[in-house]
Amino acid sequence: MLRHATVCLALLLGTGLLGCPQQARTQAPTGSGGRGERTETRVTTPQPEDRGTPAASIGDVATGVALELPDGWTARAGRGDVVASAWGPGEDAVRVQLRTWDGDEDSLRPLLDRDPWSWSAAGPYAEIAVADGEPVVAAWREASGADPDREWIVFAWFFRVGDRGLGVLARVPVADVEAGWRTAVGILDGATRRSGA
Fold first, then answer.
1. Domains, the chain, ranges and CATH?
2. Rounded Cα distance, 95 and 15, in Å
């Protein structure tokens, strides 16, 4: 069970992520008349986020760590350091990301530097049943440049399982932070380690 949940909740730091814009081209007539000259106008529209397919869990094959997801969630495999991402239902859904971590707290700086009010600490702030030792916990805000009214708080737990480091990042909408926090903590509390990994 995670202890000291109020430490992370007290931070209440939020921001958002958008998908890459897709450029659409439209032809617009010029105001000069007669010649039929055309100019190109570029209109950007947000591309829908790929939330994968319905899923009951996400996991890391190397360690056997699995995170069970609530009903109605979707997930997809990640790239690079991201092992997998999962989304709850709805436009402003909670997102949980499972990623690899090199075990060095200094490597978290690029994530934390996104927000001047970010926070991180190692120590007795959380217990994760599948972790070897105490995790590093962190929180920061994320906001959408296109829609500043949509803000999120990212709560993160970084820990080791054997010789591999993992991170669980939960992006929670500020508008519903309490319910989002409970959902994220429930997923993390239910983490299991499958045998054979």
1. 5-19+51-193 (2.60.120.1690)
2. 13
